[in-house]
Amino acid sequence: MSNIWISTKAKLRAWEPRDWEAQLSWRDDTSGERADSHVPFPVSVPATKADVEAMALRKPDGDNFEWIISDLDGNAVGCIGSHNCQRTNGTFEMGFFVSPEHRRKGYAREAILLLVRFMFNERRYQKANADAYSYNEASLKLLESLGLQIEGRSRRMQFSNGAHHDLVRFGITIEEFRIAHADWLKANASPLYPWSALLLATYYPAYDQPRIRFVS
Ligand SMILES: CC(C)(COP(=O)(O)OP(=O)(O)OC[C@H]1O[C@@H](n2cnc3c(N)ncnc32)[C@H](O)[C@@H]1OP(=O)(O)O)[C@@H](O)C(=O)NCCC(=O)NCCS
């Protein structure tokens, strides 16, 4: 069996009602919430349970969706979402959060690779974008390390912690992604079916090489 939502290190899965405790603890990380978007008002246990219950029942809105990032045992370590998905243009944005105690273990990296591969290979997108506030060193470095390029800077886009902050826009095309992550794509390949992979490898040995898809 193969599952495109699982890499050698992490999984993307739907929200489950049991994730309320994780969500409650993420809301306590106000500096992480600020870096993600804004500092929220405190939320009670019943309200968090209701929010997470609603998340678990939520259907995708077009290709906009929110996933839980989990370890290989299914324990929630963070979340990631696809936003502003524009099918005609083939562009989408992503936002992500990893629980403080799970940071610097590669979970955001794996989650982004799984999400981008899905959007490019299964939903026919061709460009992934992400924004990071100018003070968000972790996110700036993460996006840079994944090969996303800085495409612009919008000035004074967030007011937080008593000041206005700029927003840095990053992006990566499908061609850049397939070249930058050829090793990861190979290590986490998900064949159509085992027998068709065997046939393809026999008659078309280059089938698993990164391919450039031309978009007219
Ligand atoms: C940004 C964030 C998602 C990173 O998650 P993470 O799981 O810790 O990131 P990874 O472990 O996958 O890091 C991959 C690479 O990104 C870079 N990176 C990540 N965190 C970093 C930090 N604090 N300082 C410098 N570089 C960092 C490193 O190059 C790292 O590779 P390395 O650990 O081998 O050096 C996490 O810090 C977070 O949730 N922050 C709060 C919310 C937020 O900022 N969301 C993003 C909004 S745009």
3D structure, described in words:
A hairpin with a 4-residue loop joins β3 and β4. The longest helix is centred in the middle third of the chain and has 15 residues, at 107-121. This protein has helices at 20-28, 30-36, 45-57, 107-121, 137-145, 174-180, 182-187, 194-203, and strands at 11-13, 65-70, 76-86, 91-98, 127-133, 149-160, 163-173. It has a seven-stranded mixed β-sheet, sandwiched between helices. It has one domain (11-208): 3-Layer(aba) Sandwich (Aminopeptidase), CATH 3.40.630. It is α+β, with helices and mostly antiparallel strands and 216 residues long. Helices cover 35% and strands 27% of the residues. The structure holds coenzyme A. Coenzyme A binds at residues 32, 35-36, 95-98, 103-109, 132, 136-139, 141-142, 145.
Task: Explain briefly what this protein structure is.
The chain is of the alpha+beta class and 216 residues long. It has helices at residues 20-28, 30-36, 45-57, 107-121, 137-145, 174-180, 182-187, 194-203; strands at 11-13, 65-70, 76-86, 91-98, 127-133, 149-160, 163-173. Coenzyme A (COA) binds at residues 32, 35-36, 95-98, 103-109, 132, 136-139, 141-142, 145.
Task: Walk me through the topology.
Layout: E1 11-13, H1 20-28, H2 30-36, H3 45-57, E2 65-70, E3 76-86, E4 91-98, H4 107-121, E5 127-133, H5 137-145, E6 149-160, E7 163-173, H6 174-180, H7 182-187, H8 194-203
Parallel strand pairs: 4-5
Antiparallel strand pairs: 1-2, 2-3, 3-4, 5-7, 6-7
Helix pairs in contact: 1-3
The chain binds coenzyme A.
The site of coenzyme A has 22 residues, from helix 2, strand 4, helix 4 and helix 5.
